[in-house]
Design brief:
The structure is a single chain. The protein is an alpha+beta fold. The protein folds into 2 domains: 131 residues, no CATH class; 165 residues, Rieske [2Fe-2S] iron-sulphur domain (Rieske Iron-sulfur Protein, 3-layer Sandwich), CATH 2.102.10. Helix content is 37%, strand content 11%. It is built from 8 helices and 10 strands. The protein has a 4-stranded antiparallel beta sheet with strand order 1-2-3-4. It has a 4-stranded antiparallel beta sheet with strand order 5-6-7-8, with no helix packed on it. Strand 9 and strand 10 form a beta hairpin. Helix 3 packs antiparallel against helix 4 and helix 3 packs parallel to helix 6. The protein is elongated and about 95 Å long. It is found in: Cell membrane. InterPro entries: QcrA_N (IPR045603), Rieske_2Fe-2S (IPR017941), Rieske_2Fe-2S_sf (IPR036922), Rieske_Fe-S_prot (IPR014349). Belongs to the Rieske iron-sulfur protein family. GO terms for molecular function: 2 iron, 2 sulfur cluster binding; metal ion binding; monooxygenase activity; oxidoreductase activity, acting on paired donors, with incorporation or reduction of molecular oxygen.
Length: 347
């Protein structure tokens, strides 16, 4: 067959292009708009407006529930009180935010314009003309949403949004004390006996004799009179101590700390100086204390100085001795603020 009998590739492309042009369809535009009942019946619109306002009011009730629960259901030393406090605070927060979300969705679906619009793309320039157009769009949005003329929705929304941040303020307050010298002082003082931490707040804690602390052992310790505190959990968090025994010649004692240990028995704060996690891992062979949160490592033989990890300063040491009955007692409070190094900045 001759070449004239076969169409060239250029001819084929032209045919395909022509066919595609002929088969192209016309843009039908947006579908016909279906009006909602709230668009055609003023009474239905009013009813929907009241429903939105009620939902915002429910949010206000949820916020008030959180605030009241915060003061009424104070978590105590029992798990039941902690669970009740958590339940009521979570219930109040959930109602407050959930009701606002439902109100916004219901408002948008029943009262705000739902007509589809199409706009041509244009360059994003900051000319005066464009700014005027933007302001006009905002004005139209205000008018179309009805926020200007629907005072019931507007006022209830403003009240709900004004109150809903209050629980966050109370929660942030519980993250810890404000900057100051609060972490410089604990329940430890001269003559306070060291007691084993059994996990609760016993009225008759098990005291610790120097003879009870053998090399390689580690004791989690609290003040003997912790149960007399008005806020035992908070005071325990600051006063928690680890006690262990080394050979006296293994300790590198700095000047002024010669009598802070008793025959190789040393006591250090249990609170990591990084972000306050409990230091609870003791390596007997290396005499290292490890924080499980971020792996800060402290050398007990060198007064718990930091040898690894993000912590910036040693664990504070509690000066100890023994009383006339052989029980371990504190010589004084910590000589440095316990906890994260943030508190060291507030001398």
């Amino acid at each position: 067959m001759s070449s004239s009998e076969h169409p060239t590739s250029e001819t084929s492309n032209a045919v395909v292009g022509s066919s595609a042009t002929e088969d192209a369809f016309t843009n039908p535009g947006p579908e016909e708009h279906s009006y909602r009942i709230t668009d055609t019946e003023p009474e239905a619109a009013k009813r929907s407006e009241r429903q939105v306002a009620i939902l915002f009011s429910v949010s206000i009730i949820g916020t008030l529930l959180f605030i009241v629960s915060y003061f009424v259901f104070t978590p105590g030393a029992t798990m039941a009180s902690i669970r009740m406090s958590t339940l009521m605070l979570g219930l109040g927060t959930g109602i407050a935010f959930f009701a606002i979300g439902i109100a916004a969705v219901h408002w948008g679906k029943t009262l705000m314009p739902d007509r589809e619009l199409s706009e041509d793309r244009h360059q994003l320039a900051g000319s005066d003309e464009d700014q005027a157009v933007a302001l006009e769009i905002i004005r139209q949005g205000k008018e179309e949403s009805g926020i200007a003329r629907r005072s019931l929705i507007r006022n209830s929304m403003i009240a709900a949004l004004a109150l809903v941040p209050l629980p966050a303020i109370l929660v942030f307050r519980d993250l810890g004390p404000l900057p100051g010298r609060v972490m410089h002082h604990t329940m430890w003082r001269k003559g306070v006996r060291l007691a084993k931490d059994s996990g609760g707040v016993p009225e008759h804690p098990a005291l610790i004799r120097a003879s009870d602390v053998t090399e390689g052992s580690v004791f989690h310790v609290i003040p003997e009179d912790l149960h007399k505190s008005d806020e035992p959990l908070d005071d325990k968090a600051k006063a928690a101590v680890l006690v262990m025994r080394l050979e006296p010649d293994q300790l590198h004692v700095s000047k002024g700390r010669e009598n802070w240990n008793y025959n190789g028995i040393v006591a250090y704060s249990k609170i990591c100086t990084h972000v306050g996690c409990p230091v609870a891992l003791y390596e007997h062979r290396t005499h290292h204390l490890l924080c499980p949160c971020h792996q800060s490592t402290f050398d007990v033989t060198h007064e718990c100085k930091v040898i690894f990890g993000p912590a910036k300063r040693p664990l504070p040491q509690l000066p100890i001795t023994v009383d006339s009955e052989g029980y371990l007692v504190a010589r004084s409070d910590f000589q440095a603020p316990v906890g994260p190094s943030f508190w060291e900045m507030n001398h």
